[in-house]
Design brief:
This is NERD domain-containing protein. The chain has two domains: 192 residues, Restriction Endonuclease (3-Layer(aba) Sandwich); 88 residues, Arc Repressor Mutant, subunit A (Orthogonal Bundle). It contains eight helices and 15 strands. The longest helix is centred in the N-terminal third of the chain and has 24 residues. The protein is globular. The structure holds zinc ion.
Length: 301
Amino acid sequence: MNRKPRTEPYLLLLFNYLHCRMNLSKIDNLNYTNLKKGYEGELQLDRLADKLQSELFTLNDLLLETNNTEFQIDSAIITQTAVFLLEIKNYEGEHYYESGRFYTINKQEISNPIHQLNRKETLLRQFLKNHGFHLPIEPYLIFINPEFTLFQAPINKTIILPTQLNRFIEKLDKHPSKLNGMHNKLVDQLISAHKKKSSFLKQPNYEYKHLQKGIPCLRCNSLLQSVRGNKVVCNDCGFEEKIESAVMRCVEEFMFLFPDWKVTTNGIQEWCGVVESKKTIQRILNKYLRATVQGRWTFYV
Ligand SMILES: [Zn+2]
């Protein structure tokens, strides 16, 4: 049973919103690409884990803290006898392993995923101990991408290569499991300790006045849209969306990017750029949000 479904991490969502409204720096762009790729890999594993029939709990994307140290878990699967700690890597292409280190085929060393996993295992063990749980941890490093090759791979039972993935899931499903109240308590503890946002987040700087206004196309992200009747139509790819859903997407985005700002008809009209009728914006805001009047101003929550 999936007790904590995965949602897009804060930073990925932020980049999703910002990248069509401003030019991201080279580093931010690289970071964005890696985050997207990592998230796709995690979703791929979720699809496999969803097929598990055995009695177990799955928790995805946990951000925890123990002894003042933050750590993130891609997936934790709780069975009767163990916590499976899964670190998922969506690496692609040819890599090789030599003297305990990982390299791309171009001899570029990459940060050692086994060390990352070991660190997380230690921290999770401390977390469990601090909260009075004594389930053993089984750590696994999962290379999810079928296009990934690791030459000279070590014979290491914690590493699961793409060709071993189905067998790994089958083995997990055969793991004897009967969950009880302790497992439930553990899951509740993990979910309540989950932090929504990392304290060490390196997020790009952005300012309202520097962001391009408009409604990003759902299909191609272009801000070049026209309003036709009750639809917005992308001038680049022709994709059509109901104006209500397009405006509400922009409201959601506005609230995410500027959480301390008030949502007003004028503000949203400017943010959406393309909707000329103030009445249309007002009607949509009134339909989906609650209007609050403060003096001369009406804003929406
Ligand atoms: Zn488009």
